[in-house]
Amino acid sequence: MTSGFEKAITIKNAINKIDKREYLLPALQRQFVWGTEKIEVLFDSIMRDYPINSFMLWQVTEPSIKNNLKFYEFLRKYRQKYNELNPEFETKGHDDFFAVIDGQQRLTSIYIGLKGSYAYKGYKKWWRNDEDSLPTRHLYLDLNSEMPEDNDKKMKYDFKFLTHYDIQWHAKHQPFRKWYKVGEIMTVKNRNDLDDYIETNGWLSDKFTKETIRQLWAVIHERPLINYYLECNQELSTVLDIFIRTNSGGEALSFSDLLMSIITASWKKLDARKEIPDIINQVFAVRGREFQINKDFVLKTCLVLLNDNIKFQIKNFDKANVINFEEHWPDIKRAIIAGFELIANLGLSNYTLRAKNAMIPIIYFIYQKRITDEINHPLKHKEDKALIQKWLHISLLKGVFGGQSDNVLTKIRKVIHKKTEKIILLLQNPLTSVNEKRKLLNSLKTVSFPFDEIVGEFAKDPSKNLTFDDAFIDELLKTQYESNEAFLILSLLYPHLDYFNQDTHKDHLHNADFFRKIDKNISVIPPADLDFFKDANNWNSILNLQMLNSTLNGSKNAKLLKDWVIANHIDLQSHIIPQGISLDVSNFKQFITKRKIELSLKIKQIT
After folding, report:
1. What is the pLDDT of residues 17-45, one digit of tens each?
2. β-sheet bridge partners, residue 77
3. Residue 213 shares a structural domain with residue 272
4. For residue range 168-214, what is the model confidence (pLDDT) as tens digits?
5. Is residue 508 part of a domain?
6. CA-to-CA distance for 188 and 23, rounded, in angstroms?
7. Are residues 70 and 209 in the same domain?
8. CA distance 299 to 264
9. What is the full DSSP assignment across 348-414?
10. Residues of 491-524 as b/e, b for ≥16 C-beta within 10 angstroms?
11. What is the pLDDT of residue 243?
12. What gap in Å lies between CA 65 and CA 155, rounded to an integer?
């Protein structure tokens, strides 16, 4: 058989082929990504006889492809976060079949609308895999009337994914709506049955309902709407090239999706479609901090850890590199988890880690130094942790990883690589004895995180340098309590706290309630200082904030600063509380003025 356009088939025919596993998805394909609204619009287009574009199928006949390339079934019951992966299908010894090269999203959507279901997290619900948090939805069509012409989606037919409870609500509060479960049209086999079906349901007298059901049946059972090009070439490289050409312009397909396709098709021992989402979910679960990473982050980390050229280019995902990724994947995975556990132990969360790419140099350092299993031990690598914490916080505050970060990552990678290169080359030398390797590993573990070298590398870069000038420090000190940057600044100022073993909290030195209810406290405020007291840049900023462990924070609560200091024998210097002045709230202006000087000096010393 030669490649070319084939005779179009009906949607019903295509659904049957999916059920019979005659249509499968190659490992090249990414996950299903369409949302419910997009599916609803697709069904409206089908009902209105709009073209839904052609599909591309690959007829797989070669046993070597069946035996060596992974293929997957279509996703039938989509559950956000919990069931997003297509089940793998064993094709060894299987009859010839068709792999969908272009059109997976549309075909999956059609199948879900007609025979499947879609569940996504409800508003203000927890991430729990149950019907309360993620209720199962099926596609329905309102048979009562057309949608208003001015609707935002520009739809004619009111398709909607609804839960069982939605249907009950409509029956009680909007009984005029005639919600029809779209999948039930699959049970009507022919036109004679269709007429009986309409009569049985009492729709003969309702023109819109009757015509809508007939149109729905026709577009599913009768009209050949699935136009497709059939590719018969059995060379994987040719099919991969076709896949990239046909999908690279697709709205939902990013370049990382294409790279994922290459990896998934090339890995032999591991299933990248499971491994990548698994590491993303594991990172999300680290200490409940909900760190959110994606495929781009994971692939970029693989490149940085194993490749000199870290750019997202097809040539960097050639066969040799991709196989190398698979061989080192268990170590890469452990290093990623260890890196996020480390910053969670340093008190950061998804909220405070604004630039995820800032994690990649930390992961690379952990990976290169071979300390994945040790870095989070509370008594080991304390110097590295302190230097990493300082570098990370300064980098985030300076926005070093804003915009295109490949150049930054490349430079930092070179600095870290230079520190470890000689030892690693000796470790990799097959002539190095076991005893020598043991000594080399011990030497490798003495290599410190190269904070000073990284600072020096960017010293002359006007936009990526890590220095704080007076104007920048001035702005930092205005940072408000609610800002995600407040934690980073206070962590720099209070590095001695045990972020590993204790919860830490931001705390107002002079109580915030005093200033929020300032009209009630006017009698203790010097009249000339009233505007100063009212200014949030004074009372709600870093100038009036400290970092406390949970024990000390519990002891302070709403106590006046001067009373708390006396009652808890507070060391003023370690808390950066000005000495030699009154700590009474009436002396707030002098307190803030003096503390600003002390904070500025401390930040300059740190950076």
Report:
1. 999 999 999 887 778 999 999 999 999 99
2. 117
3. no
4. 999 999 998 999 999 999 999 999 899 999 999 999 999 999 999 99
5. yes
6. 23
7. yes
8. 12
9. --TTT---GGGHHHHHHHHHHHT-TTTTTSTTS-HHHHHHHHHHHHHHHHHTTTSS--HHHHHHHHH
10. bbbbeebebbeeebbbbbbbbbebbeeeeeeeee
11. 74
12. 43
Neighbours of 299 (CB within 10 A): 20
Same structural domain, 427 and 493 = no
pLDDT in tens, 562-599: 999 999 899 999 999 999 999 999 999 999 999 999 99
Condensed to tens digits (0 to 9), the pLDDT of residues 209-228 reads: 999 999 999 999 999 999 99
Full DSSP string of 8-27: -B-HHHHHHHHHTTSEEEET
Q: Cα–Cα–Cα angle for 556, 539, 597, nearest 5°?
A: 100
CA distance from start to end of the chain: 69
Question: What are the residue ranges in the chain where pLDDT is below 50?
Answer: 250-252
Residue 212 lies in a domain: yes
Q: Is 378 exposed, middle or buried (0-12, 13-18, 19+ CB in 10 A)?
A: exposed
Distances (CA, A) of 98 to 232, 233, 267: 10, 12, 21
Give the domain-ending residue among 210, 229, 248.
229
Claim to verify: residue 141 and residue 276 sit in the same structural domain: no
Same domain, 103 and 134: yes
Same domain, 437 and 486: no
Q: Flag whether 553 is in a domain.
A: yes
**Residues of the domain holding 540:** 470-606
70 vs 270: CA distance, rounded Å = 10
177 and 267 belong to one structural domain: no
Residue found by looking up tokens 């590398």 in the block: 457
Residue 508, SS3 per DSSP: strand
Residues 329 and 416 in one domain: yes
Tally of domains within the chain: 3
Secondary structure class of 505 (helix, strand, coil): strand
DSSP assignment, residue 541?
Answer: B
Using the 3D structure, point to which of 399, 432, 457 is the last residue of a domain: 457
Tell me if 480 is assigned to some domain: yes
Alpha-carbon distances, residue 512 vs 121, 348, 373, 526, 553 (angstroms): 36, 24, 43, 18, 14
